[in-house]
Structures are given as C-alpha cells and as structure tokens.
Amino acid sequence: MELNLQTPRKFAPLLNQSRYKGIHGGRGSGKSHFMAEMLIERCMMQKTDWVCLREVQKTLDQSVKKLLEIKIQAYGLGQYFEIQQNKIKTPYGGVIIFQGMQDHTAESIKSLEGFDGAWFEEAQTCTLRSLDLLRPTIRKEQSEIWFTWNPTNETDPVDLFLRKDPPSDAIVIEANYHDNPWLPGVLYTEMQWDKHRDFDKYEHIWLGKYNINSNKRVFKNWRVEEFEAEPGEVFRLGADWGFSIDPSVLVRCFIKGKNLYVDYEAYMIGCEIINLPELFLSVPDAEKWPITADSARPETIAHMVKHGFPKIRAAVKGARSLEEGINFLQTFDIIVHPRCVHTIDELKLYSYKVDPLTNDILPILEDKDNHVIDALRYACEGARRIKKQEPIPISKKPVSTNWMAR
Questions:
Q1: In a domain, 193, yes or no
Q2: CB-based contact 177:29 (threshold 8 Å)
Q3: Owning domain of residue 73
Q4: Which of 111, 271, 280, 375 has the most crowded Cβ, counting Cβ within 10 A?
Q5: Are 174 and 307 within one domain?
Q6: Are residues 36 and 167 located together in one domain of the fold?
Q7: Which tens digits make up the pLDDT trace of 339-359?
C-alpha cells in the first residue's frame, strides 16, 4: 500500500539511505512526527524490525509508542498493524519494540543484533555508555540508527558524535518551529510569549540553542524519570495565576523521604478566568485535593472555590518566603515526569542574577522562568512550615476576607 506522506522541505535529505540520521532542534519542529511517519512508511514497504529507545524508560507512557499508534490510525492502517501492550507487530512479520538503554547490559543488548534499525528519542540524555553499546549492536546490512533531540550541552555524547565531528555516513539536520508547516496554534502562542518575555528561554527551548547558563542555575538537584504514584500518596498542589498574557499553572507533587516527585502539570498562556477550572481539571483529581495558590489574586481564588475547587487556599507568603521556598526545594532530589515539559524547562533555566560588570553570580533570583517554580513552592509551603515548626495563621474571618488581607 502506497502512503501519501507530505514531507517538509527541511526533512527531505533524511529520505535518503544513511547509517546515521539525526534531527536536532527546538520544540514544535515536528521532528518526532516526521520520524514516526518515516518508520510507518518503511514498515508498509518491507519487513521491518525496529527498536525505539530512550535512555530511561520505566513505562511506555512517554515512549513514542503512542505517537506511532496515532500515525497508524491517522493514515487508516489499523488493519495492517497489530498493536499490543508493549510492542507493535508490523506488516510482513516485523515488530517495533520499546526499551530503555539504561536497562541494557553488554549481554542483553545482543538481542537487538538482528534488527533493521533503532530510533533514539530524547537523545540529549543518551550517555556515552549507551551510545557505545548501541552502535556496534545494530549491525545488519543497510541498518540505520536515528536520533532526535533538543540540545542541552555541547558536550553531550550525541552532540559530540553527530555535530562536532559526524561520521561520513550520517545525515544530520537542524529543524525548529519555523520549519514545521503544521505547527499547532497553542505552540505558536507559547513560542511568541517566550520570544517577547524571555529571549534566552526562547533560544534554548524553541531554537535548540545550547543551555549556556549552567553555572548560574538555581536547581541542579533534579532529573527526568518516568514513575507512577502509588496508592495512598499524599499529593501537594500549587497554583500560580497568569496576569493577562502570563501562563496560569497548576502543578502536582508528592514527597517521599528526600525525594520530591512532580507528576502532573497544567499550563496555559493567557487563560481567561472562566477557563481556569477546565485547565485545572487536566490534573487528575485536582478538585479533590487542597491547592495552595498565589495570594495576589483573591478574586481568582474565590472564583475557583465557587466553580468546583472548594479546597483551594491562598499561600501565606511572608518575608523571605521566596528564598526560603527555593532553599526548601533545593533540599530534595526532584524527580520530574517527562510529561511535565514546562517544569523541565524552568528547572533548566531558572537562574541567579549575574553582575554585568564582573560577571559574578549574585545571590539574587532572576524574576523569570519561574511560573511553575512558584507553583511548586506554594505546593510545598505547608510541608516547609511544618518542618520549620512555623505556625500557619488561622483566621476566623470569612475565607474571602482573609484572602484579601493576605
């Protein structure tokens, strides 16, 4: 069956056969969608055994499996593919599987030797060990290894391998949002907001530039990892309100020992107050749990109470609450679920100010890249105060009046 796939001009070189294929660039480029379509097309043309990889993969939720399923349905190919729980059987007797490279050893990786190719998604997290294991394993004649990634540091193994001194049999392109003719409107809105409000973030997130502020970063105690909350977890939710065109944010987290897990976020730029309840409901069970919200918008809190969120309350704040809240977050190992993309962005970029004359890093927090961070501070405010043995003010005044007083 011949597929009528439309290929953006920027991706056309990748249609040629090559041992290595790579696409690096920022969010919204469509690079993962293109690779998924190219893999589906290959499966429709010949028997194909393929492995889709991430550095760490504990569940299939954030693998490219769901994206491949969407493409299969979009092109009406459901009758040719058999979608199973942990793999996809392809036409002509082939198979697509999904694995984490971190789980492989020199022995276990040998199970992939007969495969036609591999696709390493989020390859900026690929370690040198994983790269060294993978390359000689995929060895079949005419086999290919694909990489897609949003660059972080120029010293990352995938960048050293495919950008600094690429092999002669490699096709590597840069693609960004302006190369995607089908860029969704919601992503365009986010891109424009970052471009006008935070140009450093715009360059890193949307143009795929290296993250050059690593020395002044506030948070270095975090990682991205798939996980699922166990039954009985105590969830802590925090909200930050968007003023006019700023993003409104709700974040959900829970604390286990020295670990702080962030498993869901809701994020929308320019969200009208009447749409806030719907936005917050995208976080599971948000209406059932206490939410600590920015106290600067008492009328918004009152609106949310009336529209399905009776347990929402204002943050206490107080002198040095910002610094103390950040210090409290820094005492944990923060584990972020891959679906929380804006949390990941801000943890990468949230920074201290730099003296423009001496280039010294100052003990002053930048007031940007902090909407999710603020929501996370509010979510943990109660736990921080309990740990410090601070009394949480209790008022007998009507709730709405108390919010105004704060």
A1: no
A2: yes
A3: 9-179
A4: 375
A5: no
A6: yes
A7: 999 999 999 999 999 888 998
Same structural domain for residues 166 and 228? no
Q: State the Cα–Cα distance between residues 293 and 236, nearest whole angstrom.
A: 11
What is the C-alpha to C-alpha distance for residues 232 and 243, in angstroms, rounded to an integer?
35
pLDDT tens, residue by residue, 168-193: 999 999 999 999 999 999 999 999 99
Assess whether 80 and 136 both reside in one domain: yes
What sign does the CA torsion over 205, 206, 212, 213 have? Answer: negative
The pTM score is: 0.78
3-state per-residue secondary structure call for the chain: CCCCCCCCHHHHHHHCCCCEEEEECCCCCCHHHHHHHHHHHHHHHCCCEEEEEECCCCCCCCCCHHHHHHHHHHCCCCCCCEECCCEEEEHHHEEEEEEEHHHCCCCHHHHHCCCCEEEECCHHHCCHHHHHHHHHHCCCCCCEEEEEECCCCCCCHHHHHHHHCCCCCEEEEECCHHHCCCCCHHHHHHHHHHHHHCHHHHHHHHHCCCCCCHHHECCCCEEECCCCCCCCCCCEEEEECCCCCCEEEEEEEEEECCEEEEEEEEEEECCCHHHHHHHHCCCCCHHHCCEEECCCCHHHHHHHHHCCCCCEEECCCCCCHHHHHHHHHHCCEEEECCCCHHHHHHHHHCEEEECCCCCCEEEEECCCCCHHHHHHHHHCHHHHHHHCCCCCCCCCCCHHHHHHHC
Q: Are 317 and 228 in the same domain?
A: yes
224 and 303 in a single domain? The answer is yes
Amino acid 317: pLDDT: 83
Query: What stretches in the chain show pLDDT beneath 70?
Result: 1-4, 62, 213-214, 388-406
Does residue 184 sit within a domain?
A: no
**Does the residue 186 lie in any domain?**
no
How far is 46 from 90, CA to CA, in rounded Å? 9
Closest of 162, 147, 141 to residue 101, by C-alpha: 147
Instruction: Give the domain CATH number at 350.
Output: 3.30.420.280
CATH of residue 77's domain is 3.40.50.300
318 φψ region: left (φ > 0), alpha (ψ -120 to 50), beta (else): left
Q: Within this chain, do residues 366 and 226 fall inside the same structural domain, yes or no?
A: yes
Pull the structure tokens for residue 186.
């919601």
**Per the structure, how many domains does the chain have?**
2
Residues 314 and 251 both lie in one domain = yes
